[in-house]
Amino acid sequence: MDYSIDFFLNILRRSLFHPSFASLFLAFIFVQGIPVNSYLFIWSSVYTGSVFFVWFLGYMTKVSRNGRKSRKIDWDDEIVLITGGARGIGLLLAETLSIKNVTIVVLDIRKPEIEHPNIVFFECDVSKYDQVQKVAKEIIAEVGHPTIIINNAGVVKGKTILDESEEEILSTIGVNLLAPFWITKTFLPEMVAKNHGHVVNISSALGFSSVAQIADYCATKSGLLAFHEALRHEINARYNASNVRCTLVCPGQVETGMFDGVSYKYPFFTPTIAPIEVVKKIITALDKNETSDILTPYYVHLMPLLRALPGFINDLGYSIMGVDDAMKTWNDTRSKPKNQ
Q: Which keywords does this chain's UniProt record carry (predicted)?
């Protein structure tokens, strides 16, 4: 069992930091006859109030984005399009959703290693707008209009800015950032017209804070954050399609092979996560038909706050955690032939 900080924080979230526990604790203090003006009762009230306040903020965020009532989707009516669905998170998503008898459309430059009657593969370089437009006509004619699009395709080169070639930089930008633009521009109009659909953008923890030897990847993931936020606001404020949901996924290091060899000094605080954990969170957001921000593991929630700290504190943290040395041990296993 992985006894990382996430394990213990998850226990606290379900116990001490849960509104039900906080309510029972304050009630227990009260029935003990402890005076309401005593320090114990006052601090117990502060604790309970704080737990409820944080819970209320989360609830209001959910309501503001989804309305008070959010109907679960009927999977029989959905068509899911996944870019980069030949391996990693994309492939696992396709496999898992196919069990629900959902029609899955996979866009990739390579064919998935699995075959399933519910999974339809179309070869496409999603970084090229003309290819996306061409394959879209085939998808609509053969399968129908996708109602859920998952912008998952991603590449990493693992080189410094000076070592990376122009072609490699353009490839990373094309797959990681331009592809979500092309896919969304192509398939969103039908969702807006029917006021039904879901766009999932898979960014990264590195979209919040960059590290050495991966500048192009970090830049594209940061750009994808901005793209996602603007898209969500345009859907609500320009297209008046509030039932088209937008989910942002920002995972830390996922065990998909993309970052093999990368390690940190203190994995207790920055644990890697299994792909299935990310997939379960995505499917839950889709199933509930809710706009969500999925940040996992827990340390990712703190990363947006880093930019508000003085620069020397950030640099000190990077130094202590050995962040800028992490990519030195990276192994490019995903681009190598299987017999190597």
A: Lipid metabolism, Membrane, NADP, Oxidoreductase, Transmembrane, Transmembrane helix
Contacts of 318 (CB under 8 A, 6+ apart): 211, 324
DSSP secondary structure string for all residues of 161-187: TTTS-HHHHHHHHIIIIIHHHHHHHHH
Give yes or no: residues 168 and 317 share one domain. Answer: yes
Please state whether beta strands 148-151 and 79-83 pair in parallel, antiparallel, or not at all (unpaired): parallel
Please state which of the ranges 55-59, 64-68, 171-175, 230-234 shows the lowest mean pLDDT: 64-68
Helix (H, G, I), strand (E, B) or coil at 320: helix
Q: CA 264 → CA 70, 191, 217, 320, 328, distances in Å?
A: 40, 42, 18, 10, 11
Same domain for 59 and 167, yes or no, is: no
Which of the four pLDDT bands, split at 50, 70 and 90, describes residue 13?
Answer: confident
State the first-to-last Cα distance of the chain, in angstroms, to the nearest integer: 31
Report field, pTM of the whole predicted structure over 0.85: yes
Same domain, 34 and 151: no
Cβ contacts of 96 within 8 Å, gap of 6 or more: 279, 283
* Best CA proximity match to 226, nearest among 304, 162, 167, 168: 304
- Could you tell me the residue range of the domain that residue 46 belongs to? 5-64
Looking at the structure, tell me whether residues 125 and 185 fall in a common domain.
Answer: yes
Tens digit of each residue's pLDDT (9 = 90 or more) over 187-210:
999 999 999 999 999 999 999 999
Dihedral sign from CA coordinates of 315, 320, 321, 322: positive
Q: Could you tell me if 165 and 272 lie in one domain?
A: yes
The domain tally of the chain equals 2
What does the mean pLDDT of the chain come to? 91
Is the domain of 116 the same as that of 256? yes
Query: Which residue numbers are catalytic?
Result: 217
Give domain status of residue 336, yes or no.
no
Look at residues 117, 45, 109 and name the one whose alpha carbon lies nearest to residue 83. Answer: 109
